[in-house]
Automatic annotation (TrEMBL):
<dbReference type="InterPro" id="IPR010982">
    <property type="entry name" value="Lambda_DNA-bd_dom_sf"/>
</dbReference>
<dbReference type="Pfam" id="PF00356">
    <property type="entry name" value="LacI"/>
</dbReference>
<dbReference type="InterPro" id="IPR046335">
    <property type="entry name" value="LacI/GalR-like_sensor"/>
</dbReference>
<keyword id="KW-0805">Transcription regulation</keyword>
<keyword id="KW-0804">Transcription</keyword>
<dbReference type="GO" id="GO:0003677">
    <property type="term" value="F:DNA binding"/>
</dbReference>
<feature type="domain" description="HTH lacI-type">
    <location>
        <begin position="15"/>
        <end position="69"/>
    </location>
</feature>
<dbReference type="Pfam" id="PF13377">
    <property type="entry name" value="Peripla_BP_3"/>
</dbReference>
<dbReference type="InterPro" id="IPR028082">
    <property type="entry name" value="Peripla_BP_I"/>
</dbReference>
<protein>
    <submittedName>
        <fullName>LacI family DNA-binding transcriptional regulator</fullName>
    </submittedName>
</protein>
<keyword id="KW-0238">DNA-binding</keyword>
<dbReference type="InterPro" id="IPR000843">
    <property type="entry name" value="HTH_LacI"/>
</dbReference>
Length: 349
């Protein structure tokens, strides 16, 4: 059947599933079945829908591949919104590593908007219906996250960058041992002579934040150092962190371990407001090794996540899950590394 446009790419971009349904004289669900479950249709109906898809240029190659192999070679990844004025360089680096690894395995990452909460499940359902993605990679896991149970119930392969922080553990995941990272930061500071080591973290209840706080607390207790009055919390915002760290500095902290580089930057601002120098007067350690950490003056010592390894492991686990759905879940906890710069120094206290 001849095509009616000289520009298939432009034409395909304007064609929707509903357009195909109207042209073929069937329902949108029938078109979806033709792409995802052709065995449900009568041969003459399937033939009519597929010819219409080809005529209109509605993802013809993807549809043909799906019908031949039952694999779309697509992996869905939902992007969650970032707070106004904030940046997400860590997740950007993870997404690049994930995309590169998927590409090497012959897959493509299909991005879609995924708002937090139950409403975010709509995007997953739509991708399953319209694009027949082979599986999903999740990130931003949090307490009460519904996505894992929703996908497991439907038999959809998935892997998460991040643990489930409450309830029954579901599915495969890859995560970074945040507690190990902050433990190593305290160990380094103790080795430099620091004893009054404070922690600036996120509000309690954040799985990732609580994990990073636990490492600080564990190391402090191992060395017999007091933790009472040495912990403060802030949202991931420079101005809020600047205010929150003030009481810790007033209480005589000689070093501050933080749950993120953004919180560490708030510490920098607070110290400069007091005419103190990070690394000379008060040691500061961040977390994530944001690209800005090396550009600060002085450079920020921080805990780096092995994001390339996370991306590789996510793809490996997801491909294994696709090929062997009944295998026991696999969980991978990766070690971060302490990157030392000029914001940590010896202490006279």
């Amino acid at each position: 059947m001849p095509r009616s446009s000289n520009n298939p790419a432009t034409k395909a971009a304007s064609v929707t599933l509903a357009t195909v349904a109207r042209r073929a004289g069937v329902s949108p669900q029938t078109v979806s079945n033709a792409l995802n479950s052709p065995e449900l249709l009568r041969p003459e109906t399937l033939d009519r829908v597929l010819r219409t898809i080809d005529e209109l240029g509605y993802r013809p190659h993807r549809a043909a591949q799906t019908l031949r192999t039952r694999s779309s070679k697509l992996i869905g990844y939902g992007i969650r919104p970032t707070a106004p004025g904030a940046s997400a360089p860590v997740m950007d680096r993870f997404l690049h590593a994930l995309s590169q690894t998927a590409d090497e395995a012959g897959y493509r990452i299909l991005l879609f908007a995924s708002p937090p909460g139950g409403a975010g499940l709509d995007g997953y359902e739509e991708l399953l219906d319209l694009h027949s993605v082979d599986g999903f990679v999740l990130s931003g896991t949090e307490r009460g996250d519904q996505r894992q149970a929703w996908l497991e119930k439907r038999g959809v392969p998935f892997v998460a960058f991040g643990r489930m922080w409450s309830g029954r553990q579901i599915g495969d995941w890859v995560d970074v041992d945040g507690a190990s990272g902050t433990d190593a930061a305290v160990e380094h500071l103790v080795g430099l002579g620091h004893r009054r080591i404070a922690f600036l973290g996120w509000p309690r209840g954040s799985g990732v934040g609580d994990d990073r706080a636990e490492g600080w607390q564990r190391a402090m207790r191992r060395h017999g150092l007091p933790v009472r009055g040495r912990r403060a919390q802030s949202v991931d915002d420079i101005a809020s962190a600047q205010d929150a760290v003030g009481p810790l500095l007033d209480a005589g902290a000689t070093a501050v371990v933080t749950a993120s580089d953004m919180l560490a930057l708030g510490c920098y601002h607070a110290l400069r407001e007091r005419r103190a120098v990070p690394g000379t007067d008060i040691a500061v350690v961040g977390f994530d090794d944001n690209p800005m950490a090396a550009l600060l003056s002085p450079g920020l010592s921080t805990v780096a996540q092995p994001l390339e390894a996370v991306g590789r492991e996510c793809v490996r686990l997801l491909l294994a899950r696709m090929s062997e759905a009944g295998a026991p879940p696999e969980r991978v906890l990766l070690e971060p590394s302490l990157v030392l710069r000029d914001s940590t120094s010896a202490s006279d206290a």
